[in-house]
Amino acid sequence: MLVDVSELTKTPGGEEVRKGTVALSADDLALAELRTVEPAEVRIRLRNVGGTIIVEGSASTRAVVPCARCGTEFPLSVEASWETTYRRGPEGTAGTVETGEDGQTEWTFFEGNEIDITPDVVQALSLALPMKPLCRPDCRGLCPVCGQNLNERSCSCETQTVDPRWAALQEFARKTKGV
Ligand SMILES: [Zn+2]
Ligand SMILES: [Zn+2]
What we know:
Elements: E1 2-4, E2 15-22, E3 36-37, E4 40-49, E5 52-66, E6 73-88, E7 97-99, E8 106-110, E9 114-116, H1 118-128, H2 164-177
Parallel strand pairs: 6-8
Antiparallel strand pairs: 1-9, 2-4, 3-5, 4-5, 5-6, 7-8
One zinc ion binds at residues 143, 145-146, 148, 155, 157, 160.
């Protein structure tokens, strides 16, 4: 998503709000199991502060992912926000990040009159994705013995009712009681 800042760069203290969409792919979001992903809805606020352009953005998308426990595909909503400071840089520096002498201030260069905010959208949404997406917080997963999806129905395998956290304790109790 390219944002024209030709007016804003001429207006110290100026502010603009833009909306748009950014097409995403599963590769973009570095989540291999991602099935489909909708274009991100993006809203940004740009401010000209002392010649730098500060972009505050928020983005949201929906993707279909397999649950990390039971494998069932489900729609996942992802929202993210970020802030990036931009400065106009010399030719060939667009997208380069530079750190100031204080070691903390960071800015990203743009060239000409356009800022490409797509990399920020992709990065912010990637970071907001859960490492292990769950179809529901209490997903019961699959039976390790027969593979039954335990959210749908239970099976009669030995292990089904034993929470792994309790298994060791039960084993201990069995031994100490000599049962
Ligand atoms: Zn699940
Ligand atoms: Zn089973």
